[in-house]
Amino acid sequence: MGSYVHRALAGDGRLRITHVVVPAEFVADAQAQLQDAAVVVGDVDQLDATPDFALECAGHSAVTGAVPRLLRRGVDVIIASVGALSERGLPESLETAARAGGAQLTLVPGAVAGIDALAAARQQGLESVEYVGRKPPAGWRGTAAEAHVDLERLTEPTVFFEGTAREAASLFPKNANVAAMVGLAGIGMDRTRVTLIADPGVTRNNHQIVARGAFGELDIRTAGETLPDNPKTSMLAALSIVRAVRNRVAAVAI
């Protein structure tokens, strides 16, 4: 995802990507790929200047390790790995770090539509929120789903997980960022019900949110294409990050 977002933003004259942070063992290779387009470092403490804002596309370990330090340093951060916030106490610790640094943490909606409406509905109170994630079997390879279902031999849609958004995001960190985002935007991680399905009859990553409350009822479905080189990630998730970054420099933000 990081590579996709970097390519999408590289030609935008309103933005300048000054630094890229990767694990130390990948610094040399990343620098060779980027050449002089940006400086590559192995840790945020090695940044030789304070950026206007930072973007996380590196997974849960970056959210727990690098993001708090950036926030305390006064750097606004946009994070993609929202599923990391399923860890108890982490949202509160990130908020504390942001307050200490006078910075802001932004969570992107990712692969699903309707997060703005869900967060708005929460202001008047929500009664229930349900999320259903349906992907082709290939989208669940290399995850905990393999312990529950034979992904290579599926002939019909198969539910392999039912539980809370917190449980889903914890068990499927590379696939269920959406579950965490729905939980955080709506009724909470422990009250949001999640169903995950492997379906050989679909070719796209399908997401459905159903919410009920004083505002009425919300039923939103999204069927997204995946990134060409990563079947676990919806293209819309990457584009959601691109939008969030461009909104930082736009005269009019939507």
UniProtKB/TrEMBL annotation:
<dbReference type="Pfam" id="PF03447">
    <property type="entry name" value="NAD_binding_3"/>
</dbReference>
<keyword id="KW-0662">Pyridine nucleotide biosynthesis</keyword>
<dbReference type="GO" id="GO:0016639">
    <property type="term" value="F:oxidoreductase activity, acting on the CH-NH2 group of donors, NAD or NADP as acceptor"/>
</dbReference>
<dbReference type="GO" id="GO:0050661">
    <property type="term" value="F:NADP binding"/>
</dbReference>
<dbReference type="GO" id="GO:0009435">
    <property type="term" value="P:NAD+ biosynthetic process"/>
</dbReference>
<dbReference type="InterPro" id="IPR020626">
    <property type="entry name" value="Asp_DH_prok"/>
</dbReference>
<feature type="domain" description="Aspartate/homoserine dehydrogenase NAD-binding">
    <location>
        <begin position="2"/>
        <end position="105"/>
    </location>
</feature>
<keyword id="KW-0520">NAD</keyword>
<dbReference type="InterPro" id="IPR011182">
    <property type="entry name" value="L-Asp_DH"/>
</dbReference>
<feature type="active site">
    <location>
        <position position="207"/>
    </location>
</feature>
<protein>
    <recommendedName>
        <fullName>L-aspartate dehydrogenase</fullName>
        <ecNumber>1.4.1.21</ecNumber>
    </recommendedName>
</protein>
<dbReference type="GO" id="GO:0033735">
    <property type="term" value="F:aspartate dehydrogenase [NAD(P)+] activity"/>
</dbReference>
<dbReference type="InterPro" id="IPR005106">
    <property type="entry name" value="Asp/hSer_DH_NAD-bd"/>
</dbReference>
<comment type="pathway">
    <text>Cofactor biosynthesis; NAD(+) biosynthesis; iminoaspartate from L-aspartate (dehydrogenase route): step 1/1.</text>
</comment>
<keyword id="KW-0521">NADP</keyword>
<comment type="function">
    <text>Specifically catalyzes the NAD or NADP-dependent dehydrogenation of L-aspartate to iminoaspartate.</text>
</comment>
<dbReference type="Pfam" id="PF01958">
    <property type="entry name" value="Asp_DH_C"/>
</dbReference>
<dbReference type="GO" id="GO:0051287">
    <property type="term" value="F:NAD binding"/>
</dbReference>
<keyword id="KW-0560">Oxidoreductase</keyword>
<dbReference type="InterPro" id="IPR036291">
    <property type="entry name" value="NAD(P)-bd_dom_sf"/>
</dbReference>
<dbReference type="InterPro" id="IPR002811">
    <property type="entry name" value="Asp_DH"/>
</dbReference>
<feature type="binding site">
    <location>
        <position position="111"/>
    </location>
    <ligand>
        <name>NAD(+)</name>
    </ligand>
</feature>
<comment type="similarity">
    <text>Belongs to the L-aspartate dehydrogenase family.</text>
</comment>
<feature type="binding site">
    <location>
        <position position="177"/>
    </location>
    <ligand>
        <name>NAD(+)</name>
    </ligand>
</feature>
<feature type="domain" description="Aspartate dehydrogenase">
    <location>
        <begin position="154"/>
        <end position="242"/>
    </location>
</feature>
